[in-house]
Fold:
Amino acid sequence: MAKDNLLIIGSTGWIGTYITDQILKSKDLFGRIAIFTSLGTAETKAQLFEGFKEQGVEVIVGDILKLGDLERAFEGIDVVISAVGRNIIAEQISWIPLLTRSPNIKRFFPSEYGTDIEYGPSSVHEKPHQQKLKVRAALAKSEGFEYTYVVTGPFAYGFLARMEKLPEIGSFDVAKKKATVLGDGRGQVSLTTEPDVGKLVVKALQHPEATKNRALKVNSFTTTPLEIVAEFEKQTGGEKWSVDYVPLEKLRELEEKAWETGNGTGFTLRRIWAEGGTLYEKRDNGLIDGEETDSLEDAVRVAIAKQTGHEKL
Ligand SMILES: NC(=O)c1ccc[n+]([C@@H]2O[C@H](COP(=O)([O-])OP(=O)(O)OC[C@H]3O[C@@H](n4cnc5c(N)ncnc54)[C@H](OP(=O)(O)O)[C@@H]3O)[C@@H](O)[C@H]2O)c1
Structure:
């Protein structure tokens, strides 16, 4: 059977980097691997693109807001994987007619990689979900290709970071041995490490039937903020960390204020995660042979390396 030709859009963004890295690690599974990027990014990240080209990646430079540029990039492509940033999530709706009329395209992965935006009855009202919900509504009516929503919950390295300027949304500070946790710190949360997001996308690509026209709810592990603190303590010499608690009512107040004065996305997502919005009866890793994932121990090791400068953030 012919191998699928892939196009990645948003390949140098935060999560796009990890997705691209894992696709390249498995490149023998695929045919052509192409990347669509803007001229600005092609210039500022020229070295990165040179590295991609050395690995046989086709770099297509264009304007993501010009449908003609995208349509040219879609030529000969079987699967489009988008990891575009939040600002342009809704733009993906305008790609649907192109995806439909592209003769080869059979699967689209829109930019998701987050909280389940259809988790429960209140999800439909959550402000940060609105653009992705519109994309899903448009895709549900689309024809001529299939789609997969890769739902990963919070990224582990992001969740375990030190939030110097805003510890109230949850923070783990290795240098100060100090954590700020939401609620009583015992609420469960399911996290996916950034490399696992990439690996699980590759697994989803390998399992087209199991991932057809659905949200694929995957994660690396489920834990609690206090278990995370305990793991940090273990990996930083065994000494107790100091822990501050932010009651959920306080978080909701901060969230409201943030929306009044600007964009409260970060607060809303943290509140949803703290309320248990990443927990499912059953995760879907088993559907795609994706049970082998990073552990809390692995994620904390990387989080420490990032904060102590032993690995780039
Ligand atoms: N679960 C979590 O904890 C979590 C955290 C963060 C993000 N996410 C989700 O992951 C997805 C990708 O987010 P991200 O933070 O990785 O994205 P990002 O770093 O902000 O950007 C991704 C890429 O989108 C492309 N892009 C082109 N024009 C753009 C524009 N006008 N505005 C924004 N991006 C533009 C760029 O591609 P080029 O580099 O090729 O120019 C950019 O590198 C989103 O759906 C987001 O909601 C989830």
